[in-house]
Amino acid sequence: MRKWIQRAVKGKKGIVHKLLKIPVTKPIPLKLLNSAIARYKRKDKLSKTELRNYRRLVLARTLKKIKKKK
Question: Per the structure, how many domains does the chain have?
Fold first, then answer.
């Protein structure tokens, strides 16, 4: 497993929900996930925390797409 994936997974439970400001009990809509990722992409320079959050969101999107295919 790549290092950044390990770091992204290590976060608190429900961290992606917190970043997107939705309750933990509700599923994450892909559209909301994509818009949050786009917001980070628009920035020129990301801080360490922003980079970590961006990677978490990208990982969440990837896992969601994989889960959807099965």
Answer: 1
